């Protein structure tokens, strides 16, 4: 079974922003925290992020590390 589409998108965003393996892991944790704090995305009821939202979250994440 392949990776879920949302994880594939997070991987693609991480690659676009040249994140290291560790940064990619930390970015995933960052996204989960954002969802728990009520800053989830608008893609669906689970709060998954659109491509544009993920891109903005990646910028925010990288500015704060």
Task: List descriptors.
65 residues, 3 helices, 0% strand
What is the element layout, followed by pairings?
Elements: H1 5-16, H2 21-36, H3 51-63
Helix pairs in contact: 1-3
Describe this structure in words.
The chain is globular and about 30 Å long. Helix 1 crosses helix 3. It is built from 3 helices and no strands. Helix content is 63%, strand content 0%. It is mainly alpha-helical.
Mean pLDDT equals 94
Classify the secondary structure makeup into a structural class.
mainly alpha
> Got a strand count?
0
Q: What is the general shape?
A: globular
Number of helical stretches of at least 4 residues: 3
Rounded to an integer in angstroms, the radius of gyration calculated over CA atoms is: 11 Å
Largest sheet: none
Counted up, domains total: 1
Question: Helix coverage percent of residues?
Answer: 55-70%
Low-confidence stretches: none
Distance, first to last CA: 33 Å
Oligomer: single chain
Could you state the order of secondary-structure elements as H and E? HHH
Strand content: under 5%
